[in-house]
């Protein structure tokens, strides 16, 4: 590195998505991929930059961003310019809403919603729209297409999971000896008892696989939408997210995200993770605030000021 950078300069670059490597000489550029996809021109540009300014290869993070290692400080402005040529940018660091991660529910046979489209909506509204909102710590959002839980939405600060809840029309059930519904249920929630199909909703995870499996249409769609988890995290101290125990529409889920971010900014302690705040305050109290709308009335007040900007934040 031709220029000796002070701690504030290194911190500033990290906030822009350029992270100092262990050798203290080069930077990793963290490139944001919206909904985990790249068009050919964007992919080509990333590899060109890696070959021209980096180590000639890239790495993919668990949140589907792309990291280009080996960039010199004096080349950072050139990298920014070339990324901008194809609509790309670095980021994904700091005490703010992080890049949204989603599974491939858009194309997966088990997908119950267009996860990538919902990812884009969340990215536009909260990653870009709230980028300058400083939070107590990072805030990760995950979108899963079904209860298969591939991207672990229940281990994100806020997780969304596709849901299709079935219901039984007993008048249409013929009590088949070989029941297609019972065979389709992977969690053994559906079972024929005394010649009638029954669903144990304490076991049912609303995957929707049973809904079209009855030859006599005894299983219908009751409600379709998403489940929401709050306060999940993995790492050294794992916390499984608290289930809000309701099926929401996608628009309702977006509003819950907004209320969660506002609540976190107002009530979280600097450097405290969202899940730790939920445990400290109490999940019932937090859920009550997120289901209600009172906090939205104080949105401007909560977002004003420099709360959480003086910190010992490090990751």
From TrEMBL:
It comes from the Bacteria. SUPFAM superfamilies: 4Fe-4S ferredoxins, Nitrite and sulphite reductase 4Fe-4S domain-like, Nitrite/Sulfite reductase N-terminal domain-like. Keywords: 4Fe-4S, Iron, Iron-sulfur, Metal-binding. InterPro entries: 4Fe4S_Fe-S-bd (IPR017896), NiRdtase/SiRdtase_haem-b_fer (IPR005117), Nit/Sulf_reduc_fer-like_dom_sf (IPR036136), NO2/SO3_Rdtase_4Fe4S_dom (IPR006067), NO2/SO3_Rdtase_4Fe4S_prot (IPR045169), NO2/SO3_Rdtase_4Fe4S_sf (IPR045854). It holds the Pfam family Fer4. One of its GO terms (molecular function) is sulfite reductase activity. Residues 164-194, 195-224 form the 4Fe-4S ferredoxin-type domain. The keyword Ion transport does not apply. GO terms for biological process: sulfate assimilation. PROSITE patterns: 4FE4S_FER_2. One of its GO terms (cellular component) is sulfite reductase complex (NADPH). PANTHER family: ANAEROBIC SULFITE REDUCTASE SUBUNIT C (PTHR11493:SF54), SULFITE REDUCTASE [NADPH] SUBUNIT BETA-RELATED (PTHR11493). This is 4Fe-4S binding protein. It comes from Clostridium aciditolerans.
């Amino acid at each position: 590195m031709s220029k000796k950078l002070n701690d504030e300069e290194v911190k500033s670059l990290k906030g822009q998505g350029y992270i100092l490597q262990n050798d203290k000489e080069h930077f990793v550029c963290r490139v944001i991929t919206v909904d985990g996809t790249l068009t050919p021109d964007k992919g080509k540009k990333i590899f060109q930059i890696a070959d021209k300014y980096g180590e000639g290869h890239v790495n993919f993070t668990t949140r589907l961003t792309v990291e280009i290692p080996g960039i010199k400080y004096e080349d950072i402005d050139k990298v920014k310019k070339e990324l901008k040529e194809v609509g790309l940018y670095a980021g994904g660091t700091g005490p703010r809403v992080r890049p949204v991660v989603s599974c491939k529910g858009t194309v997966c046979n088990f997908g119950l919603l267009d996860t990538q489209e919902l990812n884009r909506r969340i990215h536009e509204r909260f990653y870009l729209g709230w980028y300058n909102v400083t939070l107590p710590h990072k805030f990760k959002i995950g979108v899963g297409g079904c209860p298969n839980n591939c991207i672990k939405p229940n281990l994100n600060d806020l997780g969304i999971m596709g849901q299709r809840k079935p219901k039984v029309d007993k008048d249409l059930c013929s009590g088949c000896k070989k029941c297609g519904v019972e065979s389709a249920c992977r969690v053994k929630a559906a079972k024929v008892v005394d010649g009638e199909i029954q669903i144990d909703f304490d076991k049912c995870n609303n995957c929707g696989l049973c809904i079209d499996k009855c030859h006599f249409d005894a299983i219908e769609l009751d409600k379709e939408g998403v489940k929401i988890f709050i306060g999940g995290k993995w790492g050294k101290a794992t916390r499984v997210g608290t289930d809000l125990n309701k099926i929401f529409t996608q628009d309702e889920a977006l509003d819950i995200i907004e209320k969660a971010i506002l609540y976190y900014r107002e009530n979280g302690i600097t450097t405290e993770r969202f899940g730790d705040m939920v445990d400290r305050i109490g999940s019932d109290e937090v859920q009550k605030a997120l289901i209600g709308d009172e906090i939205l009335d104080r949105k401007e007040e909560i977002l004003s000021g420099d709360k959480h900007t003086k910190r010992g934040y490090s990751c």
